[in-house]
Amino acid sequence: MSVTVEGENNGATSPQSEVKSPEASSYSWYVLIVLVVVYILNFIDRQILSILAVDIKADLGLTDADMGFLGGAAFAVFYALFGIPLGRLADNWSRVKLLSIGLALWSIMTALSGFARNQVELTMARMGVGVGEATASPTAYSLISDYFPKRQRATALAIYSSGLYIGGGVSLFLGALIVQSWDAAFPQGGPLGLVGWHAAFVAVGIPGILVGLWVATLREPVRGAMDGLVTPAHPAPFRAFASDLSMIVPPFTLWGAWQRGPMALVINIATAAAIAAFAYTMIQLTGNFPQWSAVGFGYYAVFSWASTLRAKDPATFKLIWGTPAFICTTIGYGLVALVAYALAFWTAPYAETVLKLPKAELALILGGSGALSGFLGVIVGGSVADMLRARHAAGRVLVIIFGVVAPIIPIWIGFTTENALLFYIMQFLAGMFGATALGAAAATTQDLVLPRMRGTATAAFFLGTTLVGLSFGPYMVGQISDLAGTMVNGTPVGNLRIGILSLIAVAPIALALLIAAYRSVPKAERTIVERARDAGESV
User: Fold this and answer.
1) Res 460 pLDDT > 60
2) Residues 6+ apart with CB under 8 A from 444
């Protein structure tokens, strides 16, 4: 794939080169507002499971680990895996059309969650939500990068990311309101036997279909123009999509490996066997087949995709998988996301079951404070990240490091106190501090690749936030809660306090990765074009 360079400097080598970048227009800001609305819906549909968790657990007879799987890997694995081919499709086809289709799909699957009668049916619906939502951020990140110059990109991405926290907060309020209203109106179950949590899924899913029509009216920007690297349209985007899809779906993965040679096939099979052995061992240790089979499938598929990408698009592979700065930033932030996703899922059930706070009260306060703290954190974090980036190429990484360290004390105090007011204050602070990292991490990874690779880079970035963060955060807390729990009247009762406090243990690992990223980002960004050329890119 070739790109056309406009001007003497492509803007990828230093902060100073960004002075000549085009300006963001008023229409750019309008598009950003639409994308924020989409992301709000994205997280309403994703996070509403949290406020419904206690009711679902009781109705379906599930454990904390089961709920952690539904809130994590059941969604995350398919979100991450389909984000790979859909991220590539976002690089090759109309991002506006792809986003509108994806929005309709995940909204329909959210509504269908309201008709689930057992864990299997709910798992299937959540998988469908994951596939649909996999279109959102690759398309949005790529659109934002083509509507905003590099010097404003972390701010724009942070504003977009605020939808995460607004949607997560609104989901708690809406979920509690719908459940209580429905159950009050239909105490024995409503039409079709639907109870409150069923109705909540249906009610929040339907509006997304209408918003999808709004998204379809947006204009598709010229790809790469904002960076002076205009990229021509792909001649066969869906053929490339089908090829990418076959990279992650067994047994096509074995055929793809065979096409690359006997040794590639041997390595693929050996890796599959090693991952299967690990998954089997974890299933034996935890007794949780869905969690570890999903995770094993996900990691094998990612390995197969990365191997194929290395053979078919060595430049993209080199700038993503072959760049330590990208990997350290992605996994380092993935551990921040692990904590954030776990808290987002388990804070409401913790407050309801441990602190005995009423659902309506905690939904209103946690939802409102969560939306406000996340919004403030991500906006301030993005702005500070852009300012630090103007002074040092790796300045944004400092904000990610802050997002690792700062929440530790609020988490400890918040989940050891019995005082409801102190609990709410600490949740606000932990959410705000953790949220500062997202815009900085997203912009850092976008700056480490060429414009034509941004959708793929976003998919790779979200592999970290999902297969590391979302797959393990909610489940880790649930599993540890079950292990630390006790029997009450013959019924196992988990210890969510210990489960949540265990999240603090990931901070040292994240810190080490981000320090490595801080040291390696400047050189990686400075040598983007050179390394792409070395891998065969015509730049």
Assistant:
1) yes
2) 329, 396, 397, 400, 517, 521
Among 11-25, 76-90, 145-159, whose mean pLDDT is lowest? 11-25
CA 203 to chain centre: 23
pLDDT of residue 322: 92
CB 471 within 8 A of CB 73: yes
| Nearest Cα to Cα of residue 494 among 148, 53, 85 | 53
Res. 18 pLDDT band, cuts 50 70 90: very low
Residue 187: exposed, middle, or buried by beta-carbon count in 10 A (0-12, 13-18, 19+)?
Answer: exposed
The rounded distance, in Å, linking the Cα atoms of 56 and 48 is 12
Eight-state DSSP code of residue 114: T
Q: Which residues, in sequence order, are CB contacts of 215 under 8 Å at separation 6+?
A: 34, 38, 96, 99, 100, 103
| Diameter of the chain measured on Cα atoms | 74
From CA 156, how far away is CA 172, in angstroms rounded?
Answer: 26
The residue whose two tokens read 């986003």 is 99
pLDDT > 90? residue 187: no
Spatial contact of 409 and 504, defined as CB atoms under 8 Å apart = no
Residues counted in the chain: 539
**Residue 259: how many CB atoms within 10 A of its CB?**
11
Whether 61 has a pLDDT exceeding 60, the answer reads yes
Containing H/E element for 229? strand 229-230
Tell me how far apart the alpha carbons of residues 262 and 338 are, in angstroms, rounded to a whole number: 37
What are the C-alpha distances in Å from 135 to residues 16, 82, 147, 220, 293?
33, 8, 18, 15, 24
pLDDT given for residue 490 in this prediction: 60
- The per-residue pLDDT for 515 is 97
* Nearest by Cα to 527 from 459, 448, 428, 414: 448
Assess contact for 311 and 95: CB atoms under 8 A.
Answer: no
pLDDT tens figures, 28-56 = 999 999 999 999 999 999 889 988 998 99
User: Average model confidence (pLDDT) for the chain?
Assistant: 88
**Cα gap 375→165, rounded to integer Å:** 6
Task: Give pLDDT, residue 240.
Answer: 80
Sign of the CA dihedral 54, 58, 63, 68?
negative
